[in-house]
Amino acid sequence: MHKTRCNVGLMVVKIDMEKAFDRISWGFIDDCLRLAGFTDHWRILVSSCLSSCMMKVLWNGSTTASFKPGRGKNTLSFAGRLTLVKSVLSTTANHSMQVLYFPRSVCDSIDKKIRDFLWGRGVHIVNWAVVTQPQCIGGLGVKSTRIMNDSFLAKLGWRLLQKPKSLWCQVIIHKYMRGYSEISCMGNPGLAGCGGVVRDFTGNWVCGFATHLGICTSMVAELNGLLEGLNCAWDSGCRRLIVEMDSLSCVQLIRGSLVNLRLAGLLSKIRAMLQREWVVQVTHVYREANRLADLLANIAVLSSTRRRTWWFPPAAVLSILIQDRQEVAWPRFVRA
What are the RNase H type-1 domain coordinates in residue numbering (predicted)? Predict the structure, then answer.
């Protein structure tokens, strides 16, 4: 309600009247008529019907003066633009974001277009980080494209872990993953430790380690042992290394022939070590051929020290070290 200088009350009423021909561009209608073969005379008549219509409003039983309606696109309010952003612009890429990881530049470009539309040609008076906050804490509730993309993919990964037997999971696993490590393969958690030894090409002791891990699964313990061993070998100056592990599943995880999404963080650290400037070959051996590392792991489980490093062999492993130097064979018992 505004008043003029002559104290005459004025009121503006905005009426949203939806017409069928307002849903599409009038220029598009004219192009369709032209392509369909209509003459210029017919096209002018149709255009006149669209653009020259007049309306009256029934007010308190009587009609008002005629007026020409205008399209609301150019006079859209901030609240209207915010509604369009939430319902249309922010959701346009949702389908693609559920299966594709968008580059950051693409996400930033989408957010920029949303910001430009929301604030119009004026200054962006509120920081984008505030705009994307929920309304309950003072934001506008607009979704950030980066966060939405990460959320969609996290949801996909979670469903892949929770329902690996479903049809769509099996399709993805067999097509893209070349195998899958079931959650049960990680074993039941328990008190664990890892141990290993670095030896030169003649079998002489270079360094050994034993690390107490606390409560974890056997798979986590094996991978931690590999990571500790790689660090120990690198710090010792080794640049050509053959790693022997008695866990076939871990070897397959490192080679990429097996996948376990829950161990992705630990595997990424191991692969980062393998990509350094050295030559590393990871191989599988039976436990009977890995007795020295197995003994150090048992020492780690019973130890109260977080990590122990030996630059000379401790007395507890001397007998096994001597037997390995003498290439003593140990039989492997297999159930019939």
Answer: 173-302
Q: Which two tokens stand for residue 170?
A: 């099996």
CB under 8 Å to 296, separation ≥6 — which residues? 195, 196, 197, 208, 209, 210, 317
Predicted confidence (pLDDT) per residue in 37-84, tens digit: 888 888 888 888 777 777 777 767 777 777 666 554 444 777 778 888
**Beta strands 279-284; 240-245: pairing state:** parallel
SS3 52: coil
Q: Which uninterrupted H or E stretch holds 49? A: helix 40-51
Residue 273 phi, psi (nearest 5): -65, -40
| Angle of the 104-119 helix axis to the 145-162 helix axis, nearest 10 | 130
Going by their DSSP bridges, the two strands 62-63 and 190-199 should be labelled as unpaired
Predicted local distance difference test score (pLDDT) of residue 230: 92
Does the predicted model carry a pTM greater than 0.85? no
Encoding tokens for residue 186?
């990680």
Give bridge partners of residue 10 from the DSSP assignment: 2
Strand 58-59 to 9-10 pairing: unpaired
Rounded Cα distance between 110 and 122, Å, is 19
Mean pLDDT, residues 223-238: 89
Collapsing DSSP to helix, strand or coil, 206 comes out as strand
Cα-Cα-Cα-Cα torsion 253, 256, 260, 266, nearest 10 degrees, comes to: 60
228 is written with which tokens?
A: 């500790």
Pull the structure tokens for residue 94.
């949702």
Phi-psi region of 200 (alpha: psi -120 to 50; beta: other; left: phi over 0): beta
User: What's the chain's Rg over C-alpha atoms?
Assistant: 35
140: its two tokens:
């506008």
Structure tokens given for 168: 């769509």
Q: Name the residue type at position 324.
A: D
Pairing of the two strands 307-310 and 205-216: antiparallel
Higher pLDDT pick, 203 / 161: 203
**What are the DSSP E strand ranges found in 16-84?**
58-59, 62-63
